Amino acid sequence: MSVKRKKLLIDTDAGVDDAQAILIALQDPDVDVIGITCVMGNADAKQVGLNVLRILKVADKLDIPVFVGCNDPLLGDKKPASDYHGSDGFGDAPDKEAPDESLLQSEHAVTALVRLAKEHEGEMTLVCIGPLTNVAMAIRMDGTFGSRLKGCYIMGGNHEGKGNMTTSAEFNFYSDPEAAYVVLNQLKSPITIVTWETCDRHSLPWDWFQTFHHSQTVFGLFLSNIEKSVISNFYQPFFDQGICKNYEVVDQYAVASAIFDDVIIEGDAVYASVELRSPLTRGQMVVDWSNVTGNEHNVRIVKKINTEVIEEKLQKVVS
Length: 319
Known about the structure:
Blueprint: E1 6-12, H1 16-27, E2 31-38, H2 45-58, E3 66-68, H3 109-119, E4 124-129, H4 133-141, E5 151-155, H5 171-175, H6 177-186, E6 191-194, H7 196-201, H8 206-213, H9 218-240, H10 251-259, E7 264-274, E8 285-288, E9 299-305, H11 307-317
Helix pairs in contact: 1-2, 1-10, 1-11, 3-4, 4-6
């Protein structure tokens, strides 16, 4: 009996972790990536689109449509791009044979999201691994957008108040807090969130990463090339101080959770929203653990992940 293929639409800001996450989906025989929408985050939206084309080229999947979307947050309060993945999101690693930008679709990512949700109603899972501006705009354009989705998986936010951009805000939600607020409160679709703390708690052993990083396959060399600056600038200083740091896996968890049933070990259904007004906690995801508000649960927060599955899937990418 044949397995019904899962239909994924990935909304991304295409840094190195996004590349690994997208390749997990592209290599799975039971997954159809029906489109990839691009949003500002690790780089400007158009550069994100060019990065995605590089991923698709190495995977021989340039037939998958790539749509460039929003380059500014909902309220225009644009934050400086993080330099973690370099100025272009791919470690400023040049590619003389990169696909031409003419391969980017002319249709805007937001209208593509709305259209594809209608064309694949009840079948399409949306995976968000960047700021949520495109998705919030799709909700504004069509209030029934979320109800057409099979589900939505998000990497973003924080459920313990620990931030990686400010003391209390995670990068994707911090980049456009209003968009995150709209999505959590108005999407009208089952939402699963892999938060920053969950990712941090499930980082992978450096010994494992060394094997992964030194793969000489086409995919292995591609990923190693775009991650060189991250290793040099953000991991090596720890090692120079004699500190053994684990390898951070982030967006990979959201994509894998959407595809594989054995990734999520534990998760809690709760009501969560996003703080917009406080200068101290703007962009923080606020979770009603004790049901103080009495609001209906709107998200499932992943708290425990099967890291062995992730190690296996990532290793398969570079094998």
